[in-house]
Here is the input.
Amino acid sequence: MEKELQSLQKFYNIVIEFLTTYSFQLIGAFIIVLLGWFASKYVYALLMRIFEKNHFDMTLARFLASVAKVLVLAAMVVVALGKIGISIAPFIAAIGAVSLTAGLALQGSVSNYAAGVLLIINRPFKVGDTLSVAGVYGVVEEIKLAYTALRNEDEE
Here is the structure.
């Protein structure tokens, strides 16, 4: 019984020492993440208002606002990890490596999305226009990030 009490006392002392030493860093990191969460929601809402005011395409507007929201939140989490005392250099290196790997693995798909973004931004054609692709004519039905749907003269 005496050994259990000593073990419990050691554990209690370690917890008290940890909280005494790191409590302000933990509270600061929690506040940073909380502020990041609110800031990311604010950035999303602000961008959506700007895009709606300028009559931006809603598909692309939601995509860009969501990307900005995730980036703001991720940046604040990285700052919070630094506040706790965790070295953030390995995290940044890992994010770079994962991004490179994903970019190479998804190269074809990403190029389709990039082309969709350029089509939506530049608007070389719009819904209802008639296009000729590889000698086949079709009417633009819808323009999405990943594809553009055409209807040919056979209604296909």
About this structure: Helices lie at 2-53, 58-84, 89-105, 107-122. The chain has four helices and three strands.
